[in-house]
Design goal:
By secondary structure, the protein is mainly alpha-helical. The chain contains 6 helices and no strands. Helices cover 55% and strands 0% of the residues. Helix 2 packs across helix 6.
Length: 112
């Protein structure tokens, strides 16, 4: 149990550090720009847990490639509202606010 908590904490610290260092570039993204979902997925550090191109290599984090766009948006909004709780996602999901649909559309367009 301790080892899992340590791994989770390391991933959380890495994700927060990455988001902080990349946040300056988020304003440059246009709301309708091609590849915005992919850019947000990368910039927010979602890939660090959910894997490159949405294919997680860690059983503790679900792969999101090919999932329903509506389902992904619903999950992000549930974490943002507190309806769903997870230490990592409760911290990360609010940073995706306003970009839920483009991230979800990007992930749903990827092959399973």
């Amino acid at each position: 149990m301790y080892n899992l908590q340590l791994v989770m904490m390391k991933k959380y610290v890495l994700a927060v550090f990455f988001v902080m260092t990349m946040s300056f570039s988020l304003g440059a993204l246009s709301e309708t720009g091609a590849g915005e979902g992919e850019a947000m997925y990368q910039a927010l550090g979602c890939w660090s847990c959910h894997g490159k191109d949405g294919h997680s290599e860690d059983d503790n984090y679900p792969s999101l490639a090919g999932r329903s766009s509506d389902w992904i948006v619903q999950q992000l909004e549930a974490f943002q509202s507190g309806e769903r709780e997870n230490p990592m996602m409760s911290a990360m999901a609010p940073m995706a606010e306003g970009f839920e649909r483009v991230i979800a559309d990007y992930l749903s367009s990827l092959k399973l």
